[in-house]
Specification:
seven-stranded parallel beta sheet, two-stranded parallel sheet, binds ligand G4F, globular, 40% helix, 2 domains
Length: 331
């Protein structure tokens, strides 16, 4: 039975990846922070299943910035594959907590690389990089050759981590992969990311629980896909014969306004009655036209996204409506 270790297992991607790996016959080990208010809701259905938890799924306490405990977990889990997904991932917040973002997103990845190369059996390593490394690119769409020009602390930290993964692969021969992930969303997305914020608001307004929705720049455009598709890409990238970097993206741009219109239409509401702009949600700098070219992932891994943008936003809004109406949904 292959063994995988996931950092960031309680997040959106971690929970979908856990489901996929369990389905593929893996023993899955997850790293969780030793915090009292740990949110494990995305994993609850697996965590509370006695035929899964403690049998094929194990959670370990460790902090990314505590080398002693991380090393201990790596040694005891002895994984064949490591999926490094953890880190501070909110771009807006990274302007406020730049130093800890660099520590948790940049330095923690370097530390992971150092630790895995000391292991007796060196695992394959996946690093969840980000389209934010491109920032203000000269070319469109972006691919694995596009130069890094980050415009925020998060993008700069990811650029550092991405370079380190390439350096350790090229210098020490690690099987280390950067998945350059464009925006990927789902009903399990954190509430402070824009798609979830909008879908949730549309559902809450429909249910009479919210009156208005305040947003930042609604002209901002992103390449949005479904997280379920993107974790499949992560897994495929570690099954390939060689370690490569891949762009995971849909290749299509949509605006925040497009999200608003689909979400409110799904709830049969006129968005213009409820949506307003608020300076508090504007960012000091916005990346320009981040749209990915996933041809390499398609050619080498046979990876293509299966869920369209419209299907994604409709699914997210419908699930929010079930949640707001008190139905239990795992998403
Ligand atoms: O949903 P967002 O916060 O995601 P963002 O900044 O693109 O970052 C996400 O995707 C990256 C991949 O490219 C990841 F690396 C990163 O970790 C994260 O997962 O914002 C999307 C867009 C931005 O242009 C933002 O300015 O929506 C705009 N926006 C407009 N109003 C808003 C809001 N974003 C948020 N969070 N909240 C607003 O009210």
């Amino acid at each position: 039975m292959p063994r995988a270790l996931i950092t960031g297992i309680t997040g959106q991607d971690g929970s979908y990846l856990t489901e996929l790996l369990l389905k593929n016959g893996y023993e899955v080990h997850g790293v969780v922070r030793r915090t009292s208010s740990l949110d494990r809701s995305r994993l609850h259905h697996l965590y509370s299943d006695e035929s899964v938890y403690g049998k094929n799924l194990f959670l370990h306490y460790a902090d990314l910035d505590d080398t002693t405990t991380m090393r201990r977990v790596l040694v005891s889990a002895a994984p064949d594959e490591v999926y490094h997904l953890a880190g501070q991932s909110h771009v807006g917040l990274s302007f406020e907590i730049a130093e800890s973002t660099c520590k948790m997103t940049g330095m923690a990845t370097l530390r992971m690389l150092e630790m895995i190369q000391d292991l007796e059996k060196v695992p394959r390593f996946f690093h969840a990089s980000s389209s934010e490394i491109f920032g203000k690119p000269d070319t469109l769409p972006q691919n694995e050759q596009t130069p890094f020009r980050p415009v925020n602390p998060y993008g700069a930290a990811k650029a550092f981590a991405t370079n380190m993964v390439s350096i350790y692969r090229n210098t020490f021969g690690l099987f280390a992969v950067n998945g350059i992930m464009f925006n990927h969303e789902s009903p399990r997305r954190g509430e402070n990311f824009v798609t979830r914020k909008i879908c949730r608001a549309a559902a809450a307004i429909k249910a009479g629980r919210q009156k208005e929705l305040l947003l930042g720049d609604t002209t901002a455009k992103r390449d949005w896909g479904h997280a379920r598709d993107y974790v499949r890409g992560m897994w495929l990238s570690l099954q390939h014969a060689t370690a490569e970097d891949y762009v995971f993206a849909t290749g299509k741009l949509n605006s925040v306004q497009d999200v608003v219109e689909i979400a409110f239409a799904t709830m049969e509401l006129d968005w213009s009655k409820y949506v307003a702009q608020d300076q508090r949600f504007m960012r000091p700098a916005e990346p320009q036209k981040l749209v990915g070219d996933p041809k390499k992932a398609s050619r080498l891994l046979n990876w293509t996204p299966e869920t369209s943008f419209r299907e994604l936003i409709e699914e997210m809004t419908q699930i929010e409506f079930k949640r707001v109406s008190g139905q239990v949904v795992s998403g």
